[in-house]
Amino acid sequence: MTNSINEIPNTKVMFVIGSNATEAHPVIGTKMKQALAKGAKLIVADPRRIDLADHSDVWLRLRPGTDIALINGIMNIILANGWEDREFIEERTEGFEKVREAVQKYTPEVVSKVTGVPVENLIEAAKIYATAERAQIFYTLGITEHTCGTDNVMSLANLAMLTGNIGKESSGVNPMRGQNNVQGACDMGALPDVYPGYQKVANPEVQAKFEAAWGVPLDPNPGFMIPDMFEAAVSKDLRALYVLGEDPVITDADANHVRKGLQALDFLVVQEIFLSETAKLADVVLPGASYAEKTGTFSNTERRVQMVNQAIKPIGDAKTDGEIISELATRMGYPFEYQSSEEVMQEIAKLTPQFAGITHERLGTQGLQWPVPHAEHPGTKFLHEGKFTRGKGQFVAIENQLPAELPDEEYPLLLSTGRKLSHYNVFTQHSPSLETHSPEELAEINPSDAKQLGLEDGEQVKVASRRGELKTKIMITERVPVGMVFMTLHYFDSPTNVLTNGAYDKVTKTYEYKVCGVKISKV
Amino acid sequence: MEWLTLTIDGREVSVPKGTTVLDACRMNNIPIPTLCHAPELTSAGACRLCVVQIEGMRNLPPSCVTQATQGMKVETQNPKVRNARKVILELLVANHPLDCMTCQKMGDCSLAEYAYDYGVNGEVYQGEKRNLPIDSGNPFILRDQNKCILCGKCIKACSEIQGKSILDFSHRGFDTQVGPAFNLPYNESDCDFCGSCVSVCPVGALVEKQMVGKGRPWEVSKVQTTCPFCGVGCNFDLNVKDGKVIGVTSNPDAPVNGKALCVKGRFGMDMIYSDNRLTTPLIRKDGVLVPAEWDEALDLIATKLGEIKKTHGPNSIAALSSAHCTNEENYLMQKFMRAVIGTNNIDHCART
């Protein structure tokens, strides 16, 4: 996030697109509601009638996969009414003219036709967002989990720059990161092209710095991204995979393809706290420790690095993941001789400019928001104040694109996936209380589709796509529009990702979890 | 900032303009009992337990809704004030169950604490007791309305913290109750089970169901930590007794969330002790995963990865790191792949 979570209750205008915050980021959702109670305005763009849609001033019920058209349309309206921030565009950005040209054809009428959103709602949304003194955009996977995910994000950046809504308190573009430490795993260089702190592996200076620190020669070529790994396994370019705390068989799109890749490996190691579906395929399974059993740090979606403090000893013979990796490195001839996770953080701080001023002691009970460039720095509440990281903000003209697979005659319904409040990914099924409360998948289907298929509420059905099929109970609800089915990824018994499409964004290789074609039949 | 000087119990203190008399006292370590007040909620001024005497005022005003003014003279402990509070407590205790020895809230109950302080034992007013059913139809919150003192904090928490507003008062007089519409049990209402109501309840009316019978407050140590579920990064206290986590409670100083949590953060910690936890390494032998010693498992991995690296090169090995693990562990994992194996084949579910 470019802004901070506690700026939300005082914000004036929120534009929430592709984010079901009250369920996927519940406490951020409550802060949005606190802002509403103080008179803030809310624009929601979502095909589903999510909880926030009921609290919104304008709900843009767009067709899945038409986000770019929607945003270009809003920009068209802003420009037609002269609501853009000319001073900001002039001083802080470049490339504006190309965007101005590109959005000309996205007239309200055209956009309404493409997105299904009434013209008056488009105008109202544009007016609320552009004429606000300060407005924040919030988005999550409804924006990124498309084959055009990167372009969706750049469109939102265009919109924010057009109105000067960035780089100020309560004014910015805020992707809310999904998992507890997905921000931190990225920050720490658990990515194939960057070392910790997003320092490029292909940069010779960076390479030299890490070679000096680690005392070994390092490879300057970026490695495989996740989808590449399963392809490479099938083609035998990849022989061994070490999976730490992930369950790709359940969580990655086109799960049957993922399973095939894993089965083609010569050697699979899984380090986990539960015997996951992926672990069941492993040659060796190592028991890791849960958050309560170790000390370290997580980085949240607002870049706040916070302490995780050990409360109990690891269960049974389990060990902390850091301990296991260290023992393995040592056995492979490169001793990792860290006495504590604090010592690891000292090494991180030395090599990672954004973390230079972070120690466990400084984090204390309140944490610090990176960048923290030195030991006295108080942390950074919001980014891009006065100037963007790259200097001038770059406008990029973006055209609307279709999802990789849309419903057709054979698979007439559109499947979109996401999370629900009572579970998180796949591991909360191991919580007896959450499991009791919310024991099974309830695929959402519109009453008119249910009627056409002759289905009753709560009925068990078969859902199939080109890639696989599963059984699930259904919930008949107006939350989803006609022609759309919504499922979560939480349940082993209804593993939704056997259905989803493995097509991915060309830059980030993020799967298109949000759109694919399915059919439903009676069991 | 404008500062005001006032005198509390003969002591001169300075506070910023806009401070209530209650906060002025608490900022200066002068104890005032409260039942309906919580710093994160708007003040109701309902329970009247925080009354003080202020020179020039006719009655005893509730300090939580009285603004401090320049030159104000406040008395917080004189006999008149203490007697007024005692009467209120006697009335509250009149219909309150006195089953403190088995009540989950014992040791952390504001009513019990003040009753002890003010010598209230339930003998003055021997009132009628309520006999309402206990709401235990959900796995998270145990609701015993017989213990409810009608302070209204849960109602405000539901509305002001959670933005849900499913709780309110119903009925009148002695029959007054707090609950969801039509007094439905929580699991039949629109409740999200965020548990904010539990976190502000001053008595045993709302308690964490999973913690019942598991430990007394004085036996429990609290360890502040960061939630392992979504990316909001809420902090809370793990409650630990005898080396075991027995529950989660809000930590009001949590930088992101204060007392607010969601159903997963507050109640999902029982996942730690799931029967499905892996407790020993497993090695596949004759097609089946069987328990093994750490040395055997780690040696096998080191040997196999070494062989594959030698035969097929370091880029034939890849790792998925974890968005659930700590920064330090992710750092070690990418260092292991880059420095020990010699490849950049490392990724994680960064984009989901």
How would you describe this structure to a colleague?
- The complex is a heterodimer of chains A (523) and B (352).
- With 523 residues, chain A is an alpha/beta fold.
- Chain A has a six-stranded mixed beta barrel with strand order 16-20-17-19-18-23.
- In chain A, a hairpin with a 3-residue loop joins strand 7 and strand 8 (199-200).
- In chain A, helix 4 (67-80) runs parallel beside helix 10.
- The radius of gyration of chain A is 24 Å and the shape is globular.
- The relative contact order of chain A is 0.13.
- Chain B is of the alpha+beta class and 352 residues long.
- Chains A and B meet through helix 2, helix 11, helix 13, strand 9 and strand 10 of A and strand 9, strand 10, helix 6, strand 12 and helix 7 of B.
Question: What proportion strand of chain B?
Answer: 15-25%
Major sheet of chain A, described briefly?
6 strands, mixed, barrel
Poorly predicted spans of chain B: none
The order of strands across the largest sheet of chain A is 16-20-17-19-18-23
User: What is the overall number of helices of chain A?
Assistant: 20
Mean pLDDT of chain A: 95
Any idea of the CATH class of the domain at 3-77 in chain B?
Alpha Beta
Largest interface: A-B, 152 and 108 residues
What oligomerization state is this entry in?
Answer: heterodimer
The backbone outline of chain A, from C-alpha atoms, is: globular
Q: Low-confidence parts of chain A lasting 5 or more residues at pLDDT below 50?
A: none
Strand content of chain A: 15-25%
CATH architecture of the largest domain in chain A: 3-Layer(aba) Sandwich
Q: Whole-Å distance between the termini of chain A?
A: 44 Å
What topology does this entry show?
The complex is a heterodimer of chains A (523) and B (352).
Chain A lengths: L12 E5 L3 H4 L1 H12 L3 E5 L5 H4 L3 E3 L6 H14 L5 H7 E2 L1 H8 L4 H8 L3 H13 L3 E5 L1 H4 L4 H14 L9 E4 L6 H6 L6 E2 L3 E2 L3 H11 L11 H9 L5 E5 L3 H4 L3 H9 L3 E6 L11 E4 L8 E4 L4 E5 L12 H11 L9 H11 L8 H4 L4 E2 L23 E2 L18 E6 L13 H6 L4 E4 L1 H7 L6 E5 L4 E8 L7 E5 L12 E4 L6 E2 L3 E7 L1
Parallel strand pairs in A: 1-2, 1-5, 2-3, 4-15, 5-6, 9-10, 10-11, 16-20, 17-19
Antiparallel strand pairs in A: 7-8, 12-13, 13-14, 16-23, 17-20, 18-19, 18-23, 21-22
Helix pairs in contact in A: 4-7, 4-8, 4-10, 13-15
Chain B lengths: L2 E6 L2 E6 L4 H7 L25 E2 L18 E3 L3 H16 L15 H8 L23 E3 L9 H9 L6 E3 L6 E3 L16 H5 L5 E3 L12 E6 L8 E7 L2 E7 L12 H5 L14 E4 L2 E4 L2 H19 L4 E4 L6 H15 L4 E2 L5
Parallel strand pairs in B: 1-4, 14-15
Antiparallel strand pairs in B: 1-2, 3-4, 5-8, 6-7, 9-10, 10-11, 12-13
